[in-house]
Predict the structure.
Amino acid sequence: MRIGTREDAPRKAMSRRFGFQVVLASALVLAACSEEKKPQQPPPPDPPEAHVKIADPTSGPYPIGQRIVVDGRESKGEGELEYRWTLHVPEGSQAEFEFENRDRNAFTPDTGGTYVVELVVVDKNGESEPATLEIAVAYGAPVAVLELHAPDPVVALEDEVVADGSKSHDPVGRPLTYEFRLTARPPGSNAQLVVEGAEARFLPDRGGTYQVGLRVKNETTWSEEVVQSIQVQPPRNLAPVANAGPDFTVEVGRVAQLDGSQSSDPNGDPLTYEWNFLETPEGSTASIEDADKAKARFIPDLEGTYVVELRVFDGELDSTDTVVVTARPFVNAPPQIVRVRLDGVPVDPGVFVTRPFGQAAVVEVEVQDEVPSSVQLRWQLDPPAGSTAELVPTERLKAEFVPDVEGFYELTVVAHDGDLDSDPFSFGVRFRDPASNLPPLAVLEVLLDVPGGMLRDDGVYSFENGTTITLDGSKSVDQDNPPDDLITYTWSLIHFPDHRS
């Protein structure tokens, strides 16, 4: 058994290698002098090979005091091997190997750091090169010490609190890493720690208890977490701020939406709401719905000015604000058809779509109007010659028809609110037997819009390697008359060089 530093092994290995070179050189000289008299000598035998590993490896650094067994049985050589073990230890360690000249060995680390195991094996042909193995051993755990400091003994809101971990220490004075966290905050608090080395700071934003945790780490090992608490006094109650929203104008008979959701309380206390009329036009009987909610509503029944007051209350203090609603005479606007669906699929005005013949067509309409419930639809169906199909309303904004001959059916729908009409919405549907559908014609063009692109005489397009090639299929068409819209384009490479990447 040998004990030394890491530097011992390389010097000894150099000595062994140097001696081998001298012997080898002498042998070559002798062989050169006598090559006429003696046959050429065979090459020298291979030296042995040393291999070392941990007998029972585990993840992570090993703890101080745990016996570590190393294994050299995978070393190779001729005949019986001699095992020469060397242990390089960290500063301050007194650890040493337990055995000499065994294929397995063991030691017990007595301090943290890196231990280097070195193994040289010897057989009848000589010594092996050293095999080394580094083993990390965890240092002893440091101790976290945490103190909380504030400007006054009684901490108030917005008083900075300092978490001081500078008294934390390591058993042998190794540098420490600090990890702070807020382990508890009052409900609703958004306070955050700002960490600067061994200190962390935060500003309390709610009254109540705050807890700060700290743990520290040396090179390998975390300490236990320590937790300290500090009590922050809640602030005195401040009055809430009512916000009834901006003044606005609405038409008589239309909903006036009242919004007090922007009201607030400086202390974050929950609020109750109360809406009341301070002024209405003479003769008005309007009333406020949801008058105890943040958002309320009423319908002005007469032209004129409505002054509405909002009162908010936090359980102790209140605040008020007003909003002025001006009601003007109702001006009717025509309804608008915003969307039409055929069999659940949206269609655009002025276009036609194709459907298989023999199935019913269902048409649904979406209408926008000041009073949507008052809107009615007028339908018109222009079928092809010989058809007796009729469009039958099934709901207020829904109708269907069954085509009885193949061909084009044109549909027109108009929305009416009892006074005004919408613009007409027209579209066409072609019903045909799917077997009569002609396939589309794909047209592919290669765009010569990059430097070096050209069409050769043999009809092959040529481009420089690495060029982005643009392919255009927009001139593909459907062969039906009139043509259907092309729905999908599918691209694929059907031939390419074998060496492509």
Remarks:
- Residues 438-500 form one domain.
- The first strand starts at residue 2 and ends at 4.
- The longest helix spans residues 8-33.
- The chain has five domains: 53-138, 147-232, 248-328, 336-436, 438-500.
